[in-house]
Design brief:
It is found in: Cytoplasm. It holds the Pfam family GTP-eEF1A_C. The structure is a single chain. The chain is α+β, with helices and mostly antiparallel strands. 20% of the residues lie in helices and 32% in strands. The longest helix has 18 residues.
C-alpha cells in the first residue's frame, strides 16, 4: 500500500461521519431490528427466485415500475413468468438461462424484523454456491413445486430437494419453512389432495434428516407468481382447508434466534473486493465488531484495523452476531484475503490447522471409504481438498456404542470418527465450541457423500492448541 492510500485511509476514518450520525446499531432505526438470514433452497425451477422477487415487491424493496420493466424485458425473451426472479438474478447468464448460478443477496424488512435473502442455486452443478449461502443462514425456505411431475422430479434421486434439506440441517440452520409453491397451477388448483400428497412424502424424509417436525418445520401453501399467502392470506373460498399463517406472518412471529454476542469475534469471509481499501463481506457468526477495532485475519495472521462497517448500504458504528456486513480493513491487501478466511479477535483467534478429527455420517458412495480417500470439504465459506488419513472407530447410529477396533473401511449409512488431513491450512473450530464453524460436508464427483462435525483440531503450534 503506497503513502497516498495510507493517507486516504486516515482521512476516511476522520471524515464527516461523526459518532452522532451513526446509531449504536446503525444510522437507520430499521437496523435496530433483529436481522434474520434466510436462504431459499430447492430443486431447479421450483420458483425460488420468483418467490424472492415477490417478497421484495410486497415489502416495498422493489417498486412497481422496476417490476414492469423486468416484465417487459422478460416478454421480449419469451420468458414472461421469469420477471419476478430478475430482482435477484441480476447477471445476463442467469436471466437468459432462467437459473440462479451464484448466491443472490437482497434485503427486506417487516414491522418487527430485517431479513437478508440468500437465493441459492437449485441446479446440481452449483451446489457449492448453495452451501456457501446456507452456511450464512439462520432460516431455510425449502421451495417445493406442487405442479404434477415437478415435485416428483425434485424429490426423487437426482433432484436437489433431498440434498438441499440435508445440507442446511448439517450446516446448522435453525428452522425450516417448507413452502408448497405453484398451488394455483391448473393441474393443482389448490387441491388439498395434492398438498397432502407432498406433505406425506416430505415428512418422513425430513424426520430422518434430523428435523424436529413440531418445533423446527412449518408447511405453508403459496403462489410465488401471484403472491398468494405471502403477505396477505389466500383469497376467501380459494383454499378453505388452510387456516395457517402467511409466509411473512410466520417469519415475523418466529422465536428470536439465539446469538453468540459475548463470544470472541468470528466472521468467515464470503467475498472481497477493493473500494478505497480492502473490503470483506460475510456474516458475523459470533461476537461483535466496532469501528476502529483491531482484528486478525486468519489463517495467514494478518493484523488489520476496521475502518468502516456497512450493513446493507448504511455505515454503522458496530455490528453483532447474526449481521451480514461489509468491513473496510486497513493494513491488509485484497490479495492477502480469500473466501473461507476468518476475521477474528486477535486475543482469542480461531484455530487454524491442516489436520483435525471429526465424526462423519456416510450418505451415498459408490463403493467404500478407506484411508487415503480424497474429497472436497465445505466448512462455513471455505472449501478445501482433503484426504481421510485414518479411520479411528465406528459408532452405532442407534445405540451410539463405539467399536473396539479400527475399521479398515466404512460403507453408506455408517458413522465413523476419522482423522482428516487438508491440502492447506483452514480455519475451523470444534462443533462443541462453535457449531457454525465446526459442521461440514464432504463432496465427491458432484455429490454430497458425507456430513460431519469437528471433534478436535490438531494444533500446528502452541497458540492454536485445542
Amino acid at each position: 500500500m503506497d503513502e497516498k492510500e495510507i493517507q486516504a485511509f486516515d482521512e476516511l476514518a476522520k471524515l464527516s461521519i461523526s459518532d452522532d450520525s451513526l446509531g449504536t446499531a446503525g444510522a437507520a432505526s430499521s437496523l435496530d431490528k433483529e436481522n434474520i438470514n434466510v436462504v431459499f433452497i430447492g430443486h431447479v425451477d421450483a420458483g425460488k427466485s420468483t418467490l424472492g422477487g415477490q417478497l421484495l415487491y410486497l415489502t416495498g424493496m422493489v417498486d412497481k415500475r422496476t417490476l414492469e420493466k423486468f416484465e417487459k424485458e422478460s416478454k421480449e425473451l419469451n420468458r414472461e413468468s421469469w420477471y419476478l426472479s430478475w430482482a435477484l438474478d441480476t447477471s445476463e447468464e442467469e436471466r437468459h438461462k432462467g437459473i440462479t448460478v451464484e448466491c443472490g443477496r437482497a434485503h427486506f424488512e417487516t414491522d418487527k424484523r430485517r431479513f437478508t435473502i440468500l437465493d441459492a442455486p437449485g441446479h446440481k452443478n452449483f451446489v457449492p454456491s448453495m452451501i456457501s449461502g446456507a452456511a450464512q443462514s439462520d432460516v431455510a425456505v425449502l421451495v417445493i413445486s406442487a405442479r404434477k411431475g415437478e415435485f416428483e422430479t425434485g424429490f426423487e434421486k437426482g433432484g436437489q430437494t433431498r440434498e438441499h434439506a440435508m445440507l442446511v440441517k448439517t450446516l446448522g440452520v435453525k428452522r425450516l419453512i417448507v413452502v408448497i409453491n405453484k398451488m394455483d397451477e391448473p393441474s393443482v388448483g389448490w387441491a388439498k389432495e395434492r398438498w397432502d400428497e407432498c406433505i406425506d412424502k416430505l415428512t418422513p424424509f425430513l424426520r430422518q434428516t434430523g428435523f424436529n417436525l413440531k418445533t423446527e418445520v412449518e408447511f405453508i401453501p403459496i403462489s410465488g407468481l401471484k403472491g398468494y399467502n405471502i403477505k396477505e392470506p389466500i383469497p376467501q373460498g380459494m383454499c378453505p382447508w388452510y387456516t395457517g399463517p402467511t409466509l411473512l406472518g410466520f417469519l415475523d412471529s418466529m422465536p428470536s434466534i439465539e446469538r453468540r454476542l459475548d463470544a470472541p469475534l468470528l466472521m468467515p469471509v464470503s467475498g472481497k473486493y477493493r473500494e478505497m481499501g480492502t473490503m470483506v463481506t460475510g456474516k458475523i457468526e459470533s461476537g461483535q465488531v466496532k469501528r476502529g477495532q483491531n482484528v486478525l485475519v486468519m489463517p495467514n495472521r494478518h493484523q488489520a484495523e476496521v475502518l468502516g462497517i456497512y450493513i446493507e448500504e448504511t455505515e454503522v458504528k458496530s455490528a453483532k452476531s447474526g449481521d451480514n456486513v461489509r468491513l473496510r480493513l486497513k493494513g491488509v491487501e485484497e490479495e492477502d484475503v480469500a473466501t473461507g478466511f476468518v476475521v477474528c479477535d486477535p486475543i482469542r483467534p480461531i484455530k487454524a490447522a491442516t489436520t483435525f478429527q471429526a465424526q462423519l455420517v456416510i450418505l451415498q458412495i459408490k463403493n467404500i471409504i478407506a484411508p487415503g480417500f480424497k474429497a472436497v470439504l465445505h466448512i462455513h465459506t471455505c472449501s478445501e481438498e482433503i484426504t481421510i488419513a485414518s479411520l479411528e472407530y465406528t459408532i452405532d447410529r442407534k445405540t451410539q456404542e463405539k467399536s473396539s477396533k479400527k475399521p479398515m473401511f466404512v460403507r453408506q449409512n455408517e458413522s465413523v470418527v476419522a482423522t482428516i488431513e487438508c491440502g492447506g491450512t483452514i480455519c475451523l473450530e470444534a462443533a462443541s465450541d462453535c457449531d457454525p464453524l465446526g459442521r461440514f460436508t464432504l463432496r465427491d464427483e458432484g455429490r454430497t457423500i458425507a456430513v460431519g462435525k469437528v471433534l478436535k483440531v490438531y494444533a500446528t503450534d502452541e497458540t492454536n492448541a485445542s
